[in-house]
Design goal:
18% strand, alpha/beta, 336 residues, two-stranded antiparallel sheet
């Protein structure tokens, strides 16, 4: 009963959110500055093609300067739900001086070693441009500014603003992350067995952490699910977003929306229809908009992915990003 109430409540709130945001035609906007006051811009298209992707990217690429890392999820070899390679292959040339970037994984997989990871990238078609396994030659420590102060100030609050347990005030990332001036976060939005859903936050929060050390810091001993894991994942993501400042931007592709991540080589067949592509310079806004669009699907389409999100407390990602002031959960959805 509690789960049904949670779902019904969230659907109601999502419907209100979708009703309260401006869903408009970009052609009628004179500039991005026409966003409603206090709301972040999220661009959307139903056109899941290179053309649609480039249309979205052209609206969010203002901070993409210098050497650009394109953070994506390489997936397991021949993963059943991977995004079409043509999408990223068509996007990459439009990000000058760019390299596809990834880190090794912690769990048993060919991607646990740099050699196996590079072979997987080649198998899955990522052989058309430079690729950098960022922790291949070592690690670096990224501070998470303000986290220690947040924990100290929030500790006496009722109800608590964070889960009890070990939190991160710094995170270990692949050292080559520091070689990039900008980061383009290209994300396949789908479910996740531990996080509930994998959006832009999960892509960098887990994906930029080094395989040997950083991912263990986030998962903790025994890999427990729940709020503490989710909060450490968000904290890790904050380290990366703070590091790049205005030079980070986000694309979420809502296609092949399985309940499973691409880290599962035998992921479940999607039961949710493809939705479209979103882009924003605000990580909270884009992940919130992605979740809202999933919840707005007909019951038969959203049921499995919503059950995965709620059974893993996945919405807590959004709540904690807001608590850490990583972005804005109020957004204007602009349809191109």
């Amino acid at each position: 009963m509690e789960k049904k109430i949670l779902r019904r409540t969230f659907l109601k709130r999502s419907a209100l959110a979708l009703g309260g945001i401006a869903v408009c035609d970009f052609n009628r906007l004179s500039s991005a500055a026409t966003a409603q006051e206090g709301k972040s811009l999220v661009f959307f298209t139903k056109d899941i093609s290179v053309s649609g992707l480039l249309k979205i990217y052209s609206r969010i690429n203002e901070g993409m300067t210098g050497r650009i890392g394109i953070k994506l999820h390489s997936g397991e070899p021949h993963g059943p739900n991977l995004l079409p390679i043509e999408l990223i292959k068509g996007l990459q040339p439009h990000a000058p001086n760019s390299t596809l970037v990834e880190c090794n994984v912690l769990y048993p997989s060919p991607r646990q070693t740099t050699k196996g990871h590079l072979e997987t990238l080649n198998t899955n078609g990522f052989s058309f441009c430079p690729v950098d396994i960022m922790d291949a030659e070592g690690e670096a420590m990224l501070p998470i500014p303000g986290l220690r102060e947040f924990l100290e100030v929030s500790a006496p609050s009722t109800p608590p603003r964070f889960a009890p347990g070990k939190h991160l005030t710094e995170v270990t990332v692949g050292k080559n992350l520091l070689n990039y001036d900008s980061l383009l976060v290209y994300t396949h939005f789908k479910g996740h067995s531990m996080a509930g859903f994998g959006g832009s936050l999960k892509n960098i929060g887990i994906g930029c952490a080094s395989g040997a050390v950083g991912k263990q810091q986030i998962h903790g001993e025994g890999w427990p699910k729940g709020p503490l894991f989710l909060e450490r994942m968000v904290e890790s993501g904050k380290g990366t977003t703070t590091h790049f400042g205005p030079h980070i931007t986000y694309l979420n592709v809502l296609k092949n929306i399985s309940v499973d991540c691409d880290c599962d080589g035998h992921g479940a067949k999607p039961t949710c229809n493809d939705i479209g592509i979103l882009g924003s310079r605000d990580i909270l806004a884009i992940d919130k908009a992605s979740v809202d669009l999933v919840y707005a699907q007909p019951e038969g389409q959203r049921r499995d992915i919503v059950e995965r999100i709620e059974s893993r407390s996945g919405l807590h990602q959004l709540e904690y990003m807001k608590a850490l002031r990583m972005g804005n959960d109020q957004y204007e959805l602009i349809t191109l």
